[in-house]
Amino acid sequence: MSNKLKAATSDRRFWVIASGLIEDIIFAHTPAVFQTYEYVLRNQNYFPELSSDQLSRRYSLLYTFTSCMASLSMFAVGLLTDMIGFWYARFYLHSVAFLGLILLVFMSFYHIDNLAWVAIPFFVGNSHAFTRLYNFQ
User: Fold this and answer.
1) Among positive and negative, which fits the CA dihedral 89, 90, 92, 96?
2) Of the candidates 24, 45, 87, 116, which lies 20 to 30 Å from 39 by C-alpha distance?
3) Could you report the per-residue pLDDT of 14-63, keeping only the tens digit for each?
4) pLDDT tens digits for range 68-122
């Protein structure tokens, strides 16, 4: 058993898959994470001037922007992977997600409502594309 394990872990493909799964678990977020953002934004009274019906529409539109960002990121990742390489595609995804995370910090620290239109699609939408990157490779 030890020789089989040693042989399997010495193969480069094993470490590519293992590191990809670890990266996916640690850095990426599942598509269901948007509902958590909506819940937190509602509880912290973002967009206070809107009625309940208007808030539902606003969060629906924000989710649509997030989905569009995911689609655009998947397109960009496909081009980067095909033309330049896998590592550049991953760098792009991590850079945009990190920018979204920084914007989320500013949004929550200074309570800037309209920053949600950029921060959430960058962070959450890009994370959707990141999870799909490993599904199609």
Assistant:
1) positive
2) 24
3) 776 777 666 666 655 555 566 777 888 888 888 888 898 998 899 889 88
4) 888 888 888 888 888 888 888 888 888 988 899 899 899 888 888 889 899 988 8
Any idea which residue has 């959707």 for tokens? 128
